[in-house]
Design brief:
By secondary structure, the chain is α+β, with helices and mostly antiparallel strands. The chain has helices at 6-21, 39-42, 107-118, 151-160, 164-175, 178-192, 214-224, 228-234, 260-263, 311-322, and strands at residues 80-85, 90-95, 124-126, 148-150, 238-244, 250-256, 272-282, 286-295, 300-308. The protein has a five-stranded antiparallel sheet with strand order 2-1-9-8-7, sandwiched between helices. The longest helix is centred in the first third of the chain and has 16 residues, at 6-21.
């Protein structure tokens, strides 16, 4: 420790007195600011090894605005798009990443994140009447009231096949009701810094008050991939399981991943490994695709496209982004 001069000692004494007494009558609007000039925030400056507050975004990619890099932005006709180099904390491409958009089934990434944080993966859940979804063209696997399956099974069905009825089972199995689960979704989103996001349901079927942004979806996906089970599930090209139906019979169910990279329908860019991801499509959201990928060195990249016009577009533009990795 370096020597403390008289002036510094006085400042330190006053600062400690303010802290201990809680008096002084002054408001500090940015109490967490590392370089605040006030004595009580600089009292550690007299030490050689002064403690520093850890910035909130220390482990995140920060995006100041649109970034084109070597990509011609005219080739990206989706409303929002981005490619994040998560290990290097760099943005390779960004377009309208802060515009609020309907998330479609990208919502299920948040559903999985909350379930993995708060749920017990082997717990059995009995499906309620809410699994009966009547919306036209809504993806389901035919779950019915009284069916019993584990949280793990419901997560697999929700993430791999984008089953909306399975997402309801996840929500009710973790929080008791969809409404309570949605509260958890929004609380966790805000805790991640996803402040331009609002969830109204756990599956992503259209709701006028449900929205997110490309950047917020990056924050959510970046948190989800910290769970090994999430990474395992999104990487599966297919999944077969059996569960107990309400009538007492066992039903075997086989599903395919909606991700066309994993199906082999879409060609993977050279020297890029597609780990997995999540698809999403509704009339309001257009075609959405979030992808987790790695390069030959094992570094992780997250690609997110929102509101592309067609399925072909969302994959072509994702491939265009992923080609920038190497």
């Amino acid at each position: 420790m370096k020597s403390i001069n008289k002036k510094s000692l006085v400042a330190l004494t006053l600062a400690l007195a303010l802290i201990l007494c809680g008096c002084g009558g002054r408001n500090f609007g940015m109490a967490y600011e590392v370089n605040n000039d006030d004595a009580m925030f600089r009292m550690f400056d007299i030490l050689d090894e002064a403690p520093k507050a850890r910035p909130f975004a220390a482990e995140l990619v920060v995006v100041p605005g649109d970034v084109s890099g070597s990509i011609n932005p005219e080739l990206i006709n989706a409303t929002g798009a981005a490619l994040f180099a998560t290990d290097d904390k760099e943005i390779i491409f960004a377009q309208n990443v802060y515009e609020q958009l309907s998330p479609a089934s990208l919502t299920k990434i948040m559903t999985a994140l909350v379930a993995l944080k708060y749920g017990t993966i082997d717990n059995y859940i009995t499906a309620s009447a809410n699994v009966s979804i009547s919306e036209a063209r809504a993806q389901t696997v035919g779950l019915e009231r009284g069916d019993q399956l584990t949280l793990s099974q419901a997560l697999h069905l929700s993430l791999i096949n984008s089953a909306n009825d399975a997402a309801i089972v996840v929500a009710e199995g973790v929080a008791g009701t969809v409404e309570e689960f949605v509260l958890l979704m929004n609380r966790e989103a805000k805790a991640l810094g996803a402040t331009n996001t609002e969830f109204m349901n756990p599956h992503g079927l259209t709701h006028e008050n449900q929205y997110t942004t490309v950047y917020d979806m990056y924050l959510i996906l970046n948190a989800a991939i910290k769970y090994d089970l999430f990474n395992h599930i999104i990487a599966l090209p297919s999944y077969t399981t059996s569960y107990l139906r309400a009538n007492g019979e066992m039903r075997e169910l086989s599903i395919q991943n909606t991700n066309q990279y994993l199906q082999g329908v879409q060609e993977t860019p050279d020297d890029v490994i597609i780990i997995g991801g999540k698809t999403g499509t509704t009339q309001a959201a257009g075609h959405c695709l979030a992808i987790v990928a790695k390069n030959g060195a094992g570094k992780t990249f997250l690609s997110i496209i929102m509101r592309a016009e067609t399925r072909e577009d969302v994959y072509d533009q994702t491939t265009l982004l992923l080609n920038q990795i190497n």
